[in-house]
Amino acid sequence: MSSAPDIDVLVLGGAGVDTIVYVPELPLPFADSYMIQPGIRTRAGQTGDFVALGLHALGMRTHHLDMLGDDPEGDLVRALHRDHGIPLTEVPQPCGTKRAVNLVGPDGRRLSLYDATRGSDTDRLPDDTVAALAATSRHAHVSITQPCAHALPVLLAAGVTISTDLHDWDGENPYHAAFAHAADIVFLSAAALDDPERTMRGIVARGRAREVVATAGADGAHLLADGELTHVPAVAPPSPVVDSNGAGDAFAAAYLFGRLTGEPPRRSALFGATAGAHACTVPSTTTAAIDRATLLTRATRLSPAP
Predict the structure, then answer these.
(1) What residues are paired with 139 via a beta bridge?
(2) Closest CA to 77 of 12, 15, 19
(3) How do 185-189 and 161-165 pair as beta strands?
(4) I need a labelling partner for 160 at 20 to 30 A (CA). Which of 184, 230, 262, 283 fits?
(5) What is the DSSP secondary structure assignment for residue 58, as one 8-state letter?
(6) CB 230 within 8 A of CB 171
(7) Strand order in the sheet with 40-44
(8) What are the boundaries of each domain within the chain?
(9) Is 3.40.630.30 the CATH number for 7-15+45-96+117-302?
């Protein structure tokens, strides 16, 4: 008889460090220099970190697996997980911990500059490590980094359900398609899609996905579940919008929380919209995911549970 899983969600990839720069406007006009307020700050937190933080704040047993360098950036990531009590399994990354610079405009929009030198074609998460963690996990959320691409067959062989976030996929790039077609739940942004419904139905037709969510910022989100496409209205933020960074990760974490606690897709999407709205009120320089009680209270106020 197999024992119950120790991990609700195994998060693979997406660990790193961002340097946050608030700029007077985006795009930023050329100038010799700018005086930046409220300053420039480097902090741990990229997509996998934020999903792990969001799930953990909602009471899900979460474990994060990724490659980290023996460097100051890696120390920041390790400290983030240690301070929040999130288990982290790290694989050495000789190229160094992933890092990026985020330019954030006054309206909360962001432009991210990723350091492409912090990785190589040989990057891998050890198959035995992935298999061992997957064997004791209910679900795996996979970032679209190269080490995670090579981990997909191991996860599929383990029989764990999979989700992924394709971010601003154009619907064509074959690299993203490999993740889309291996996942049971697919998140993506509608920003680069001419026809979100066509792309979403294509994901379902070509892969194993049973649910696809395309987020559209202030326009809400599109949910495809059981063959039916529905619109999920945006939730009004509880306070002024200061930063959109991490909103998609918050949406994904809250949606997965809903599904893993037995909620139907539509209500899980409401959870996602509520968490995403909350994230937009949190400055990029901090990490403050919505907690379970707050999420449930706000979601019930918007749409009482049946």
Answers:
(1) 9, 161
(2) 15
(3) parallel
(4) 230
(5) T
(6) no
(7) 40-44, 17-22, 99-104, 110-114
(8) 7-15+45-96+117-302
(9) no
